[in-house]
Design goal:
- By secondary structure, the chain is an alpha/beta fold.
- 33% of the residues lie in helices and 22% in strands.
- It contains ten helices and nine strands.
- Strands 5-4-3-6-7-9-8 form a seven-stranded mixed β-sheet, sandwiched between helices. Strands 1-2 form a two-stranded antiparallel ribbon.
- A hairpin with a 5-residue loop joins strand 1 and strand 2.
- Helix 2 runs parallel beside helix 4.
- The protein is globular, with a radius of gyration of 22 Å.
- The termini are far apart.
Amino acid sequence: MSSDEDESLNNAMFQEPNDYFQPEKPYTHTDYTLLSGQKLRLRLVGHNPLWGHYLWNGSQILSTYLQQHASNLAHGKTILELGAGAGLPSLVAATLGAQKVVVTDYPDTELVDNLAHNIATCSLLPRSTTTVTAMGYLWGSSTKSVLAHLPLPQHRFDILLLADLLFNHSCHDALVSTILSTLARTSDARALVFFTPYRPWLLEKDMAFFDLCRDKGLEVDKVVEEVMEKVMFEKDKGDELLRRTVFGYELRWKDLIETQR
């Protein structure tokens, strides 16, 4: 074999196959219709291992719930969303007159940049708005940088939003820790936790989150149970009705509620 042939063979051996590097999936867009009939357009990341490329059922029903109870849950409130994905509930809260909204997800550049994009391009918000801020936040870590966005940093948030996060069973402790660190110590403050048991056989593990909350002094009340028209993931197994159902729970400080009774 000649040296030219040998070099050609070596080059071929170390070349990746044509389909080795998969092209990045493009962004997609979806519309959410408010109760007013206005449409809110969202950009979704093309694909993300943290599931940020979906508009989850829990976020849609939570957004509807915020509109139905805007005077208590949005108007003039300071709001923090955890694991926001495309940020739908946060944007809805801002359009409803929230004082300040901090929308967070895992500190992944693509996720956080996409949240910022959805804020900047939301036609229902003033272009120069400073009401909504996007940032990366790791559940269970220091909340100092999150609280710094409040008008009075020594205060905490009136409302917390958590949509379709409970399937992350290993993160329940971290989520509860963050709730305890960021929820205002007032009787009106509340965390709204909406989810669907996409894996019905693990519903007990999903619900274990609320046991942790009760152990930490939070009152847990169910406020919503709504069945969607269809499941999100048609090929998944398990009880179809459960996979179409969104459950919504409200967390409040038990000791502060009891003083009002």
